[in-house]
Design brief:
The first copy, chain A, has 285 residues and is an alpha/beta fold. Chain A has 13 helices and five strands.
C-alpha cells in the first residue's frame, strides 16, 4: 500500500480472517489509531482531499473511454452510522462522480425480479464511484432472519453473490465492502437518543425496535456473511463503529486505498493540442 | 429575506430587470461583496453549514409525507464554472439529499420524445434538492443557435417552458435558475489553460471551440431566455462568473435563500414516543 495521510493498511487489517468471530469483536476499538475524535477529524479531511484528487482522475478516465469504477457497499444494523458515512465520507467526493443508491424494502416491481436485478441496474458507470446504502446482502440478512424465503433459497445465495461480485470485479469495478458493527448497548443509546430529540424523530422507525429484538439472529447472519462472502476479489472489512469518527476515518481510508489501487494517471489528449490551440486563437482572445 | 452568514439578497439583486441587457453586464463584478477570494471561501463554508441544516429538514419532511423540494438549474457557456458549482456548492450538501442530473446531447431514445420528457423524469423527489447541469434551456440555446429545429418550433418553447415551470412550482418545487456569465476573453483564458495542462486535457472538447465561434448568437439566445423566461414563479439569476469564487458564493446564497423560504420546522413524530420508549426498554439496554 502507498503511504497516505494515515499510514494504516485498513484494507488488510480490517479484513475478517479465517477464524474471525463477530461475537469477539470489540466494537468500541479503534484499530490503527491512537488519537481522539479531533485528530481523526483533521485526518479525515486530509484523506478526503487525497481521495478527491484520485476520484477526479477516475472520472477523467471514464470520460476518455476507461472502464474502471469503484463500488462502496455499506452494511450495518439500524443506527450503525450508514447515513453518517454517506454524509461525511461520500460527501467529501465531487457529487458529479458519485452514484448513490439506498436499497429499502423491495418495491412490488423489484419483487417480480431476481433479487440481483435491482442491484445490477444500480452498478456504477465507468469512471464513477457507486455507493450502496444497504445492498444485495439484505437478501441474506433480513431475508434470512425474517424467513422471507425458505432456507434452501437463501442458502444458495452466498455462492450466487460471490459469482456475481466476481463478474462485477472482472468488469473493472473495485468493490469495497464495509460492515459497520456496533454493540447491543450502543444501539440502545442511539435509538434512545432518536426518541429524546424532536429533531431526530424523523430518523426513528418503530420497525427498528422489531429488528433489535432479533439481535442474536442478525449477529449470526452477519457472521455467515463474513465467513462465506469475504473473497479475495471482494473482501469484507469489519469496522468497529461505536465511535462514529473512527468508522468514518476507516471507511474513508478504505475508499482511498481502493482508488490508489487503480494506479491512474491523467488520460492523454484525444486531440492534437497544437491544432486546437490554433483553432482557439482563430476565435479571438 | 432572513439574515444569514452573508446579508445580501442575491435572490432579488441578481434578477434581470425588465431592461436587463446581457451586453452591458460586467462579468467581472462581484455584486454585494467587497472582499476577496479568501474571505469568500470562509463565507461559503458558513453558508454551506447553514444550507446543510436546512437541507436535513427538507429531507426529514420528505420522509414524513412532505411534498416540498428544490430544483437548482445551472446554465452557462463552456468553462463558465458549472462543474465547479457542482463540486464546491452542491458538494457541501449531504449527497443523500441531492439528485444531480447532467443533460448532454439527447440520446436517440430522448430524441424520440418531447424535449421536456427527459426533464420531467429527472425532477426531484419530495424532500430532495434536484440539480440540473444544463437543462431544458438547451432547447432554446444550442437548438436555436445551431438551428436544430425551425424557428417557429423553438419560438413557441419559451411559453411552453414557462407553463412547465409554473406546473412544477405548483407541485411544491422551488426552482432556482442560475446563469453563469463569463466574458469572451475569460473563456479564451480558460480554454487555453485546458490546452496547456495535461491534467486538464480531459475537460477539453474540440466542440467547445465551435461553440465559442458562435459567441454573439449565444449571447443573443441567452438574452432572449432572460427576457422571456424570467417569471415571478421561477425567476432567473444572472451571476457574473469571471471570478469563480464569486459565482460559487452567489449560487450557494441563492440555494440557501430558497431553503429558508420553505420555512420548515422538524416534522412531528408519527408514533407515540412513550410507547416506543417502552418497547425499546423491553429489548434490553
Amino acid at each position: 500500500m502507498s503511504d497516505g495521510p494515515w499510514a494504516f493498511d485498513a484494507w488488510n487489517e480490517l479484513r475478517p480472517g479465517p477464524r474471525f468471530s463477530l461475537a469477539d469483536l470489540d466494537t468500541s476499538a479503534t484499530p490503527g489509531f491512537s488519537g481522539g475524535s479531533t485528530k481523526a477529524g483533521h485526518l479525515l479531511a486530509e484523506i478526503g482531499e487525497a481521495t478527491s484528487d484520485l476520484q477526479e482522475r477516475l472520472y477523467a478516465h471514464g470520460r476518455s473511454g476507461g472502464t474502471r469504477s469503484v463500488l462502496l457497499v455499506v452494511q450495518g444494523m439500524d443506527t450503525s452510522g450508514k447515513g453518517g458515512i454517506m454524509r461525511h465520507v461520500v460527501g467529501m467526493v465531487d457529487p458529479q462522480g458519485v452514484e448513490l443508491h439506498a436499497f429499502g424494502v423491495p418495491t412490488p416491481e423489484e419483487r417480480r425480479h431476481h433479487y440481483l436485478w435491482r442491484i445490477r441496474r444500480a452498478l456504477p458507470l465507468a469512471g464513477r464511484i457507486g455507493v450502496f446504502d444497504r445492498s444485495h446482502y439484505e437478501d441474506v440478512l433480513v431475508v434470512r432472519v425474517d424467513r422471507l424465503v425458505p432456507p434452501e433459497e437463501w442458502e444458495k445465495r452466498y455462492d450466487e453473490i460471490n459469482a456475481f461480485e466476481d463478474e462485477v470485479v472482472g468488469g473493472g469495478t473495485t468493490i469495497v465492502k464495509v460492515a459497520l458493527m456496533i454493540s447491543h448497548h450502543e444501539q440502545y443509546k442511539r435509538l434512545h437518543q432518536r426518541l429524546e430529540r424532536p429533531d431526530k424523530y424523523w430518523k426513528f422507525n418503530p420497525d427498528d425496535v422489531d429488528s433489535r429484538a432479533k439481535w442474536p439472529a442478525y449477529q449470526e447472519a452477519y457472521q455467515a456473511v463474513f465467513e462465506r462472502t469475504s473473497t479475495d476479489v471482494a473482501p469484507w472489512h469489519v469496522i468497529p463503529a461505536d465511535e462514529k469518527w473512527y468508522a468514518r476515518l476507516a471507511v474513508s481510508q478504505l475508499l482511498w486505498q481502493a482508488l490508489v489501487g487503480l494506479d491512474l494517471d491523467w488520460p492523454s489528449a484525444e486531440f492534437d493540442v497544437a491544432e486546437q490551440l490554433a483553432r482557439l486563437e482563430a476565435t479571438g482572445t
